[in-house]
């Protein structure tokens, strides 16, 4: 399944370490104080770094304060994936206005995911029980894009809001199947569930990552959230070399969207989830990209 409102946007590169700021400006990887690009920029600004944070100027010279910067306390730096933010110098997009960052999801995000899934028709939505199962059994295969308002000292610290998500499991099949989408019975005490002699749900050693949901909150559709998430997800899985392929089912009008990321149209899907009418789409990484 996928977000029907998104279309391809500009490319994104760089490995995702689970938590990263996003912008259509250059990616500076703020979590790495030794980053040469960051050092160069800070050097131009006359700012010295110690352990990744600006040092106080020892000279008795009055400093010029750049009002474009937003001050963030040391406590905030440890909690959020940035310790300063500067608006891009070029034209801001709707995605920039969200001040987005991506992060792996977990069982604590179940309610957030249920809210995002409202983007789909009711019969095509992932149930709360399936979110609990997938975000407990294989959270490393999920990814969320959050928006975090800039800090306002006059208001309580804002809570990040999940805007869009990618939810997936593993399967040994080359495409998404109804069995891979099912919720296994009594799964809590089992690593791998078999029913009637066949694997059901997440298969720990499956070489295919079956994407069950690419969804974006309705009020944030049309802001390149879905395409940004998909680019980040593909890059994350490709760099980690943990799968032979990605697979997803989608309706026909979204075929060009997924083909723009390298997915191949494998024809009508046998899945009957949500009433059927799906198309199988697969992105092959190749055996040399899997550990």
TrEMBL record:
GO molecular function: aralkylamine N-acetyltransferase activity
One Pfam short name: Acetyltransf_10
Keyword Acyltransferase annotated: yes
SUPFAM superfamilies, per database record: Acyl-CoA N-acyltransferases (Nat) (SSF55729)
Sequence ranges assigned to domain N-acetyltransferase in this UniProt record: 194-284
Keyword NAD: no
Region entry Disordered, spans: 1-37
Gene Ontology CC, one term: cytoplasm
Keywords (A to Z) from UniProt: Acyltransferase, Transferase
PANTHER family: SEROTONIN N-ACETYLTRANSFERASE
Protein name, entry field: N-acetyltransferase domain-containing protein
The organism of origin for this protein: Penicillium malachiteum
